[in-house]
Amino acid sequence: MTRIGVIAGSSRPGALNPQVVDWISQQLTNRGVEFEVVNFMDFGLPLLDEEIPSGAHNYQNAHTKKWAAAIAPFDAYIVVTPEYNHSIPGALKNALDYVAVEFANKPIAFSSYGADKGVRAVEAWRLVFSNHRAATVRHTASFSIFTDFADGVFAPTEVSVQPFGSMLADLLAWSEGFKLVRAKAA
Question: Is Ribosomal protein among this UniProt entry's keywords (predicted)?
Answer without folding.
Answer: no
